[in-house]
Amino acid sequence: MANEFMTVARLRAEMADVLARLGKGGPLYLTQRGKPRAVLLDVDEYQALLEQLEYLDDSLEALVAKERRQAGEGTRPLADVINRRRRAAPTKTLQRGAKRHAHVRVSS
To answer: Which of 21, 28, 35, 54 is at a distance of 20 to 30 A from 3, taking alpha carbons?
Structure first.
């Protein structure tokens, strides 16, 4: 199913088969009236993408913190940083049993 495009109408007709094939060849792009509308991914692929994004976010924050330290900027208490991140973070709904990695961030 590598880079396969499928109409919404065809998806309705072939849902069970489509779900069985997910993860065996990449994402499935759904089209509606000839325009891309959505992407279906296997759950494991989706979780891997989320973990990669979290890793990249942490890496970027580490680089920003390093630049601030080198520029002589002050630091803030860890509790303030955590509270700010919690307020700014969107609510995530994780599947039961999904792994979640805890990351301690020391700068914002």
So the answer is: 54
| Enclosing domain of residue 68 | 45-88
Which residues have a Cβ under 8 Å from the Cβ of 23 and sit 6 or more positions away? 42, 44, 45
Give me the residue label for tokens 């495009």: 5
Q: Which residues lie across from 32 on neighbouring strands? A: 35
> Is 10 contained in some domain?
yes
Minimal CA–CA distance to 61: which of 43, 92, 82?
82
**CATH at residue 35:** 3.40.1620.10
The runs of H, that is alpha helices, within 42-88 are: 43-70, 78-88
Pairing of strands 28-32, 35-40: antiparallel
35 and 70 share a domain? no
Domain total of the chain: 2
- The model's pLDDT over 3-31, given as tens digits with 9 standing for 90+, comes to 678 888 888 888 888 888 887 878 888 88
pTM value is 0.50
Token readout for 105 is 């961030």
